[in-house]
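Researcher: Let's do a round of design. I'm pasting the structure tokens now; please hold your answer until I've finished.
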């Protein structure tokens, strides 16, 4: 199953399915965001702490964000795999994503964005990921 990771600002990178937000902030008015998937969305407290640390040391802020977000994603993968095993299903059958769906945040593909961190974790769950 193929899913896409893209910026709300780059519709050309969207798949043919529904749009799922992976940000707790605002959503674009010109795009129908069908839902927000919080298990892979960085928490507001993590984002706030990143911005706070960024004022002092950008590199350290980036390391902090990456470490905390990867820990969140690892817990998510483990939980999904545990549920899938208990239910005798594939992880893709547990999650609400369908072929062609796009998980969106705001940062454009050419800038640093957490979708690049997320992609390998979705691949661990069996998805083919097109990351932009």
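Researcher: That's everything. Go ahead.
Model: Designed sequence:
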């Amino acid at each position: 199953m193929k899913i896409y990771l893209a910026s709300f600002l780059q519709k050309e990178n969207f798949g043919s399915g529904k749009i799922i937000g992976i940000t707790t902030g605002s959503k674009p008015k010109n795009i129908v965001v069908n839902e927000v998937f919080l298990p892979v969305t960085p928490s507001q407290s993590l984002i706030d702490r990143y911005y706070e640390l960024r004022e002092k040391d950008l590199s350290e802020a980036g390391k902090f964000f990456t470490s905390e977000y990867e820990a969140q994603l690892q817990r998510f993968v483990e939980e999904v795999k545990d549920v899938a095993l208990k239910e005798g299903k594939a992880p893709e059958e547990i999650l609400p994503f369908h072929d062609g769906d796009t998980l969106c945040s705001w940062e454009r593909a050419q800038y640093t964005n957490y979708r690049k961190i997320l992609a390998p974790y979705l691949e661990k769950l069996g998805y083919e990921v097109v990351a932009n």
